[in-house]
Specification:
single chain, 331 residues, alpha+beta, eight-stranded mixed β-sheet, six-stranded mixed β-sheet, globular
């Protein structure tokens, strides 16, 4: 699943920057974050990645507006929701960023931290900034029309097992390792299915759930709504099923939903969260993971591995890039 830069450019949506150009932003973020891997400071990981991604985005020929950003989650001064990014001379588009999905993973030197970014047509992305949590479900293409957030956990697992022609014991479900999921984990295990508990990183986990051969068949549980929109963009490019249900935690969030016509329990599909046909998703590994290799040193260079996916064409590429080594961060 590799390609040259010219091949990636050929698969671009007509309204968007090329995947190669967009990948330069996640590569910059991953390289900056990698200098802080294992140092125990997740704020330093995030701060370095945000600044690097923002600088790289400024060089892109897009007129981008950040719809999913850092501000609400991390009180960040950069890449906040509503910020304009790009040179301003390109096509107008929505931008979703997560400079590091899994800052704690990177800070602790654990696997599966990635840098991710998605772009779509202007007005295509759901603004998830006002309701922080979302209940999520992701599964592969075979699960379309089979699983649904509105169904009991047991029924979803048995339905999925049937369509995959497996016993429920052969189903693996990813769930964020949080106390709020204790009951969900018990329900899953009661069916005989296996649970893969995740310390963080549910964007990469959603991609794994829709990818053949990942060892994961289903993603369930609640997590950040901004990450849900990014995951929906990835699933638009990969195929498969993604559903999100806003999970308000305050009267202010419930009021916001009511004012915009969102009903309690309403399920949003991937196309509800990221509309249109022109969607490009890119990610670069920060630490080693099941989705991507982390930043590593080879022959005096840093090497990154990036994933570029295009919803319009359905094409996906893994790309390795070499970067001159930069001076080490002082300890």
């Amino acid at each position: 699943m590799s390609a040259s830069t010219s091949e990636m450019t050929a698969t671009r949506g007509p309204a968007l920057a090329s995947g190669a150009d967009l990948a330069s932003s996640t590569q910059a973020a991953a390289l900056a974050a990698a200098a802080w891997v294992g140092r125990g400071d997740k704020n330093a990981v995030d701060g370095a990645a945000v600044a690097a991604m923002r600088r790289a985005l400024a060089d892109l020929a897009i007129d981008g507006t950040v719809v999913i950003g850092e501000g609400e989650k991390d009180d960040a001064p950069m890449l906040f929701t509503g910020e304009r990014v790009g040179s301003g001379w390109g096509t107008a588009c929505d931008v979703a960023v997560d400079p590091v999905d899994g800052t704690r993973l990177a800070a602790l030197g654990l696997d599966n931290a990635i840098s991710a970014l998605a772009v779509a047509e202007r007005g295509a992305m759901f603004d998830a900034s006002s309701v922080f949590y979302m209940q999520k479900l992701a599964a592969g293409p075979a699960a379309a029309g089979v699983v649904d957030l509105r169904l009991p956990v047991r029924e979803n697992i048995f339905r999925l097992a049937e369509v995959l022609r497996r016993d429920p014991h052969g189903i693996c479900v990813s769930v964020l390792d949080r106390p709020r999921h204790d009951e969900l984990v018990a329900e899953i295990r009661a069916t005989g299915a296996r649970v893969r508990l995740l310390p963080d990183g549910d964007v990469a986990a959603a991609i794994a759930a829709v990818s053949e051969g990942s060892g994961v068949d289903l993603l369930l549980g609640s997590g950040g709504s901004p990450e849900g929109v990014l995951a929906a963009a990835a699933v638009r490019c990969f195929g498969g099923v993604f559903q999100g249900r806003l999970w308000p935690q305050s009267s202010a969030e419930r009021t916001w939903m009511a004012a915009r016509g969102y009903e309690s329990g309403q399920v949003l599909s991937a196309k509800d969260l990221v509309a249109g046909d022109d969607v490009v998703f890119v990610a670069t590994g920060v630490t080693e993971g099941s989705l991507l290799r982390g930043v590593r040193s080879e022959g005096g260079d840093h090497v990154t591995q990036s994933l570029v996916a295009d919803a319009r064409t359905g094409r996906r590429h893994l790309v390795e890039s070499r970067h001159p080594q930069r001076p080490r961060v002082s300890s």
